Amino acid sequence: MTFSIEISNVVKNYKYFETAFLPHTITIPLKLEDDTSYNPCVKVGDLVEEGQVIAVNSKKVNLHSSVPGKVLDIVPCYCSNGKQYFGIKIEFGGKFSYTGKKLREFQPQEITPNLVADKLISYGIFNTFNLAKIKNLGLEIKEAKKFNNLVVRLFDEDNYRYTDSLIAKFLMDKLMIAAKTLASAISAQGIIFAFNNKSENKEDLLKLQDERIHVIGMNIKRYPCGTEREIMSAYIRNQSIKKTDKFKISKKDLYIDSSTLYEVYKAINTDMPQLSRPVFVYGNCLKASTILDVKLGTTIKDLVKQIGGFVKEPKLIVINGLISGSRVQSLDTPITKDVKSLTFLSKEKKTDQNIFNCINCGNCRFICPVKISPDLIYNNVIYYKELTQNIALSSIRCTNCGLCNINCPSRLPLCQTIMYLKNSLLNDDSAKFTSESKNSSTSFDPKQDSETQED
User: What is the pTM (predicted TM-score) of this model?
Assistant: First the structure.
C-alpha cells in the first residue's frame, strides 16, 4: 500500500515535546495487552507515592503509581484493546518522587549488565516494536538469552502515527545513551539504527556510523515499512554498509522502537520506573495536534482538555494509527504502556463498520506481503472447517500488518482471525485446527522468509 503522505514532511512541523497536565485521578488497569493479569498490592484508602509498586504479576513485573495520591477504588475500565478490565483508581495528591526532580544520569560504564534485565522487569518496561504482541523487555532478554545485534527503528511503521519519529527527532541523544547501555547488557555485536531516508536529521544519523554502529536509510513510501522483515531486507540491499560474518542482521537480533528505547533510558540511565509515555494526538475534531508526555492512567477525556477540547464531535476515536490501530470504546479509557497515538475523526470521516460475507475477490491474497491466504484461513476457522497443515502453519508467517483487513470489501476481521490461529499454533494447540498434521506429505517451514520486496 503506497502513501501520498510523507511522514518526514509532517514531522518537520513539530518543534516541541510537551508534558501533559497532571490529572485529578488516574486509573491503572490490572491487565495489559500481553494478556497478563496483575494482583494489586494496595487497598482502598492507602496513600501511595509516585513510582510506588501498586500491583505485580506472576513473573514479578510491576505496575507503578504514576502520581502520588490516595487509592479510591478498584473500578472497571476500558483499555486500548477494546476490552474491559478492572483498574486501580488513584486520586492525585502529595509530593512527587520523580516529576520535577533533577535525576542523576548514569553512564553506560556505571551500569552492571547483569542487572539490566532484572530492572526492566521490575520497572515494567515493555517492548512496543510490535504493538500486536508487546512483551516485557526484561523477560524478552532473559528468555532469548542471546541476541546478535540491537536493532532500533526510529520511525513509525504506521504512516498515520508520528510518535516514534518525533521521539527520535527530539531525544536522539538520550536514545544513543540507552542504545549503548542496552547493547552492552545483551552482549550485542553491534547496533543498527533504521531511519526514514528523508528525515531532517539524516546527516547527523549518518555520522553515528562506526565499526559497531550501522545506520539504514529506508524509503517510507508504503505500508508495511518497519517490520523485522522490511528492515532486514533494507539492510541486505544497502551497499554502503560493510557486512561481515560477525555483523549480520537476522531474526536473532533484538528489535525495538524509539518509544521502547526512551523508556529504557529512563529506567536504566535515570533509575525511574515507567510512569508516563509519549502520545501523539491529532484529528479534525481538535484545535491542534501535538505530542505529549502523558502520565499513565490519564483518561482520554482529561488529555483532550489540555489541547482545548473538541471543535467537532468525534464519531470515531482510534488508538495507534488509522491502519493498524483499534477503535476506542470510551473517552474514559486510560492511557497505558501500549498507547502511542490518538486520532479523533468527525462523522464525515467515519467509515462503514458493517461486516458482509466473503465475495472471493482475492484482494487479501494479492496484497499480503508474506503471500498467505487470509480468506482460506478465515473461512475455515470461523466456520469450524478443518485446515490442511500447510495452510494452518502459513499463519505463523503473518506479521499482523493488517493489509488484508484494509483491502477486504466485506470488512472481514481477517488479520485478527489469523493471529488467533497463529497464537494457538505457537501454544502447541495446532491439533484442533489441522486435519492432516500426521498424514500430510506437504511440508512448510515457518522460519523460511518469502521473497524480498523492493521498498
Answer: 0.84
Q: Which amino acid is at 448?
A: Q
Which single residue is written with the C-alpha cell 484442533?
432
Regions of the chain where pLDDT drops below 50: 3-4, 429-455
Other CB atoms within 10 A of residue 91 CB: 16
pLDDT tens-digit series, residues 247-306: 788 888 999 999 999 999 999 999 999 999 999 999 999 988 899 999 999 999 999 988
Q: How many CB atoms sit inside 10 A of residue 42's CB?
A: 17
Grid coordinates in use for 49?
507515592
